[in-house]
Amino acid sequence: MLKGNAVVGQGGGPTAVINASLCGVIEACREYQQVTHCLGMRFGIEGFLEEQLLDLGAESPETVARLKTTPSSALGSCRYKLQDSDFPRLLQILRRHEIRFFFYIGGNDTMDTIHRLEAYCRQQGFEMVGVGIPKTVDNDLFGTDHTPGFGSAARYVAISVKQAGLLARDMRRVDQFVIFQTVGRSAGWLAAASALAKTADEDAPHIILLPERPFDRERFLADVKRVHERYGWCSVVCGEGITYPDGTPVSAAQVSDRFSNIEFGAMGGTSAAMMLHRMIGNEFGWRGEFQVCESLQMCAADRVSDTDRKEAYACGRRAVELVVQGMSGKMVSIQRTSNSPYQWTLETAALSEVAVRAKPMPDPFIHLDGNFVTQAFLDYARPLVGPLPDYVRLGAKPLDSCYSAKSPRIA
Fold first, then answer.
1. Does the active-site annotation cover 369?
2. What is the pTM of this model?
3. Strand order in the sheet with 330-339
4. What is the spatial distance between Cα 346 and Cα 355, in angstroms, rounded to a whole number?
5. In what order do the strands lie in the sheet with 234-239?
6. Please, is 115 exposed, middle or buried when counting C-beta atoms within 10 Å of its C-beta (0-12, 13-18, 19+)?
7. Is residue 229 pLDDT above 90, yes or no?
8. Which of 9, 12, 59, 256 would you label with 263, given CA atoms 20 to 30 Å apart?
9. pLDDT, position 79
10. Average pLDDT for residues 91-104, to the nearest whole number?
11. pLDDT, tens digit, 9 for 90 and up, residues 23-60
12. Are 96 and 90 in contact (CB under 8 A)?
């Protein structure tokens, strides 16, 4: 049975509940004698290469507990792709600090990092067990029903689209359309979540553009015209990664990160929402708005889903249980056992299957027209997001045409 120090890090973009997973790791480490100390990587694997480590065991129980309700990445994060030349340095640091348990909280690229490091240590005869803890607002991580972070980001999107839709509906004499863009490079899970805001046909959103379906400019403009003729305004939600049939991004993005992932609209590029706004304005001459929230949907602590927070914390604790049992090369996985009532269990997925492998929305979740979602998706997403606010509608009917100034004054 291994005994030694543990280290935990956070990779990639934050979520509103990623620190709940961190809390779960720290608290669980304190319960096992095999874990001598729990250390934290400052700024992920990049900071670990610089030997930037924190003694998380020195934090008070009160501070650790409050991580559950703290957004962003408390340890600091990075987007660093490991080079082959980095591994001897990593092994040197692991040996120096007697680290035998390795946790990394993140998405696809983070799982690739821990998978490669765990395999290298095994090849070098260094006993270290490594487990990945899932996290991503994009919900595109393979091997799990959904990822911690998605439910809260989806809640942010649904509420934002609902509120922006009310504004657009009531300001239709000024702005005839509104476009809301979500993050998600190649998967439309977050854009799809906007449909949870809809309780009536007129409600936003009217059109949802998903990266899983090629963008057709003429069809899009025809859909916008149809909606506008019916309601007098139009709400569009798009994933940042929508592309034309040939794979060209609708946005004017040209920048890639260290993992060769396109950063849509970065470095002064034009976002997909801006391009759609331009298309509608040029075609119809209407005035409208576009909203690009970027990282706000990743860290809105005021809109956290209770289910999301509980699952994120449980994933952190479960990772510690796995490593003290000697299990390595795995990612904690959430498996849904029931939709109504919503029930779930924690399982594992092999890192070799998860690393750098995306999970797009399945076809049964996408409407046949390609511009909205199905009831199956709503049934899938609703338990993860939780109840949404409901707003009053004025129910009064227009005055009769026979009403005149001579009629009794209405108080």
1. no
2. 0.92
3. 53-55, 35-41, 4-10, 99-106, 129-134, 330-339, 342-350
4. 19
5. 207-209, 234-239, 177-182, 288-292
6. buried
7. yes
8. 9
9. 92
10. 98
11. 999 999 999 999 999 999 999 999 999 999 999 999 99
12. no
CATH architecture of 4-148+302-354: 3-Layer(aba) Sandwich (3.40)
- pLDDT band at 358; cut points 50, 70, 90: confident
Q: Is the pLDDT of residue 256 over 70?
A: no
- What CA–CA distance (Å, rounded) separates 166 from 155? 17
**CA atoms of 271 and 181, how far apart (whole Å):** 8
Across the range 292-299, mean pLDDT stands at 90
Contact (CB, 8 A) for 22 and 105? yes
Q: What type of residue is 261?
A: N
Least confident range from 100-109, 129-138, 268-277: namely: 268-277
What average pLDDT does the structure give for the chain? 93
Half-sphere exposure of 166 (CA within 13 A, CB side): 13
Calpha distance 43→45 (Å, rounded): 7
What percentage of the chain carries pLDDT values higher than 90?
Answer: 88
How far, in Å, CA of 57 to CA of 250, rounded?
Answer: 48
Fold of 153-300+361-385: Rossmann fold (3.40.50)
pLDDT at 268 over 50: no
Same fold, 4-148+302-354 and 153-300+361-385: yes
186-198: average pLDDT:
96
**Domain locations in the chain as residue ranges:** 4-148+302-354, 153-300+361-385
Residue given tokens 């005035």 in the structure block:
287
**206/9 Cα distance (integer angstroms):** 40
pLDDT at 184: 87
